[in-house]
Amino acid sequence: MFDSIRHKNGRFITVIGSGEIFTDLISKLQEKYGINEFFNNSARGVTIIDSNIIGKFIYIEKGILTILVDEGISDDVFGFIYEYLDITNKPGSFMYMGEVNHLTQLTLNNSSN
After folding, report:
1. Are 105 and 7 in contact (CB under 8 A)?
2. What CATH number corresponds to the domain at position 73?
3. Residue 91 belongs to what domain range?
4. Which of 51, 77, 82, 104 has the greatest number of C-beta atoms within 10 Å?
5. Residues 27-60 pLDDT 10s
Protein backbone atom coordinates (compact mmCIF):
# COMPACT_ATOMS: atom_id res chain seq x y z
CA MET A 1 0.00 0.00 0.00
CA PHE A 2 1.15 3.50 -0.79
CA ASP A 3 2.52 5.35 2.23
CA SER A 4 1.50 8.99 1.70
CA ILE A 5 3.47 10.19 4.76
CA ARG A 6 6.74 8.70 3.48
CA HIS A 7 6.35 10.39 0.09
CA LYS A 8 5.19 13.78 1.36
CA ASN A 9 8.45 15.31 0.09
CA GLY A 10 9.03 12.75 -2.62
CA ARG A 11 9.23 12.81 -6.38
CA PHE A 12 7.38 11.08 -9.16
CA ILE A 13 9.13 9.85 -12.27
CA THR A 14 7.03 9.19 -15.36
CA VAL A 15 8.33 7.17 -18.29
CA ILE A 16 6.48 6.95 -21.60
CA GLY A 17 7.56 4.30 -24.06
CA SER A 18 6.99 0.80 -25.30
CA GLY A 19 4.96 -0.98 -22.60
CA GLU A 20 6.92 -4.24 -22.74
CA ILE A 21 10.11 -2.52 -21.54
CA PHE A 22 8.59 -1.85 -18.13
CA THR A 23 8.41 -5.44 -16.82
CA ASP A 24 12.18 -5.83 -16.48
CA LEU A 25 12.57 -2.25 -15.26
CA ILE A 26 10.10 -2.76 -12.41
CA SER A 27 12.01 -5.86 -11.26
CA LYS A 28 15.33 -3.99 -11.37
CA LEU A 29 13.95 -1.04 -9.38
CA GLN A 30 12.57 -3.39 -6.75
CA GLU A 31 15.94 -5.17 -6.46
CA LYS A 32 18.21 -2.13 -6.54
CA TYR A 33 16.17 0.50 -4.65
CA GLY A 34 13.37 -1.42 -2.89
CA ILE A 35 10.77 0.60 -4.78
CA ASN A 36 7.36 -1.06 -4.80
CA GLU A 37 4.99 1.80 -5.71
CA PHE A 38 4.25 1.93 -9.42
CA PHE A 39 1.36 3.08 -11.55
CA ASN A 40 1.40 1.31 -14.90
CA ASN A 41 -1.00 2.35 -17.66
CA SER A 42 -1.23 2.61 -21.41
CA ALA A 43 -2.53 5.15 -23.90
CA ARG A 44 -3.44 5.02 -27.56
CA GLY A 45 -3.28 7.80 -30.10
CA VAL A 46 -2.96 8.42 -33.81
CA THR A 47 -0.38 10.08 -35.96
CA ILE A 48 -0.44 11.14 -39.59
CA ILE A 49 1.79 9.10 -41.89
CA ASP A 50 1.89 11.65 -44.70
CA SER A 51 0.31 15.10 -44.44
CA ASN A 52 -0.30 15.05 -48.22
CA ILE A 53 -2.52 11.96 -48.05
CA ILE A 54 -5.89 12.36 -46.35
CA GLY A 55 -6.93 9.53 -44.06
CA LYS A 56 -3.55 7.86 -43.66
CA PHE A 57 -3.13 7.38 -39.93
CA ILE A 58 -1.13 5.06 -37.72
CA TYR A 59 -2.46 4.05 -34.32
CA ILE A 60 0.23 4.16 -31.66
CA GLU A 61 0.08 2.58 -28.21
CA LYS A 62 2.50 3.59 -25.47
CA GLY A 63 3.07 2.39 -21.94
CA ILE A 64 3.05 4.95 -19.13
CA LEU A 65 4.88 4.09 -15.93
CA THR A 66 4.88 6.42 -12.93
CA ILE A 67 7.15 5.63 -10.00
CA LEU A 68 7.04 7.28 -6.58
CA VAL A 69 10.43 7.72 -4.94
CA ASP A 70 11.93 9.44 -1.94
CA GLU A 71 13.52 12.80 -2.70
CA GLY A 72 16.99 11.65 -1.56
CA ILE A 73 17.29 8.97 -4.25
CA SER A 74 15.20 10.56 -7.01
CA ASP A 75 18.13 11.77 -9.16
CA ASP A 76 19.88 8.40 -8.88
CA VAL A 77 16.70 6.51 -9.81
CA PHE A 78 16.04 8.88 -12.73
CA GLY A 79 19.57 8.35 -14.06
CA PHE A 80 19.32 4.59 -13.63
CA ILE A 81 16.05 4.43 -15.59
CA TYR A 82 17.41 6.72 -18.31
CA GLU A 83 20.48 4.53 -18.79
CA TYR A 84 18.73 1.17 -18.31
CA LEU A 85 16.07 1.92 -20.93
CA ASP A 86 18.52 3.77 -23.20
CA ILE A 87 15.93 6.54 -23.65
CA THR A 88 18.17 8.48 -26.05
CA ASN A 89 17.97 5.67 -28.61
CA LYS A 90 14.26 4.88 -28.23
CA PRO A 91 12.26 7.03 -30.68
CA GLY A 92 9.01 8.24 -29.14
CA SER A 93 10.13 7.51 -25.58
CA PHE A 94 10.70 10.16 -22.94
CA MET A 95 10.63 10.67 -19.20
CA TYR A 96 10.25 13.45 -16.68
CA MET A 97 10.33 14.00 -12.93
CA GLY A 98 8.25 16.26 -10.69
CA GLU A 99 7.54 17.02 -7.06
CA VAL A 100 4.91 15.19 -5.07
CA ASN A 101 3.43 18.16 -3.27
CA HIS A 102 -0.02 16.85 -2.34
CA LEU A 103 -1.38 13.36 -1.83
CA THR A 104 -4.82 12.23 -0.85
CA GLN A 105 -5.39 8.78 0.57
CA LEU A 106 -8.66 7.30 -0.67
CA THR A 107 -10.44 4.43 1.02
CA LEU A 108 -13.34 2.38 -0.33
CA ASN A 109 -16.20 1.68 2.01
CA ASN A 110 -16.68 -2.09 2.00
CA SER A 111 -19.89 -2.12 4.05
CA SER A 112 -23.01 -3.56 2.45
CA ASN A 113 -25.28 -0.75 3.72
Report:
1. no
2. 3.30.70.120
3. 11-99
4. 77
5. 999 999 999 888 888 888 887 776 677 767 788 8
